[in-house]
Known about the structure:
The chain is an alpha+beta fold. The protein has helices at residues 5-11, 26-33, 58-64, 76-86, 101-114, 124-129, 134-154, 164-177, 238-257, 264-277, and strands at 20-23, 41-44, 49-53, 69-72, 91-94, 117-120, 181-182, 187-190, 211-216, 218-220, 223-224, 227-232, 287-289, 296-300, 314-317, 320-323, 327-330, 333-336, 343-344. The longest helix has 21 residues, at 134-154.
Amino acid sequence: MTRDPRWERLRRCLDDELQAILVTSLVNVRYLTGFTGSNGAVLVTADEVVLATDGRYATQAADEAAGAEILVCRAVGSDLVARAGAAGVERLGIERHVVTLAAGDRLTAAGHDAGVVLVDAGTPVEDLRVVKDDAELAALSRACEVTDEVFAAVVGDLRPGVTEREMAWRMRAEMWQRGAEPGFDSIVAFGDNSARPHHQPTDRPVALGDFVMLDFGAAVDGYHADMTRTVVLGPAADWQRDLHQLVTDIQADARRSATPGAVPVELDTAVRDRIESAGYDVAHGLGHGVGLEIHEAPFLVPGSTAGPLDVGAAVTIEPGVYLPGRGGVRIEDTVVIRDGEPTVLTRSPRELLEL
């Protein structure tokens, strides 16, 4: 039996009530096996790990999923339920939070035929993904390096007349040229559009005196960087300097507070209180985990039930203040929790750049 460390950690969740786990989230399938195809599922029992996929990916699966048994079929989930039944599994955990009603019906029918009871496994794979291993951190670090390089390459292109859409395409091209790919659709927001936290790029041209908000990140080997910088084209107005300095100070303090044992909801509350005490509204949470997904556990948001941060977790710290009709400032870094202060992976200048 192959003893991949990730498989062994997942097996610790197994007991008489949960004798095996069926993993159908493609992100979790990738985490467990390395398989990157668009159709796949994994059965993890005490004795075996079986990756099911269809014939299009048979060779790819054999190359990527070292150590796993490959089952070539079309109805990957249902066939693995049958496989579990044949192996003597009576209670099979499923990822109920990602299974659609239609898929759930198919799995239930397969379980009935195989004499297997399906139970909710919870989120065991997502829980494992919170703390990154060395290989994951290396990929995440490279993604952040590329993101910094892209910022340095494009920020000098900001000049009157350049549009948000043009800047977004330039950033995308710079990522590809460095062997990475865009981790998500870049947010490029000029002037009053920067007051919209998740603004989508338009044909609006940048003008002197505009805030410019760039929220983007490269992906390397599936791992996502996330960074936001806010600059001004030309000399900044006093209100812009004051607003940027406020967010800079809050973000710096929040970064330093992201230490082992810090509770995500408490970190968010501390930042929320500072923004509100300065007389502004709070538009979003402080941050989120990053890894194989751009938004993953733990979430640093109101109401979060995430436990204390562990060494090796990767999160964003991204406070923002937004003034509708005028503009906004967000400063965001990807950081890794370490003993003492976190390691900041995104290193582009945080001070106000007046271009």
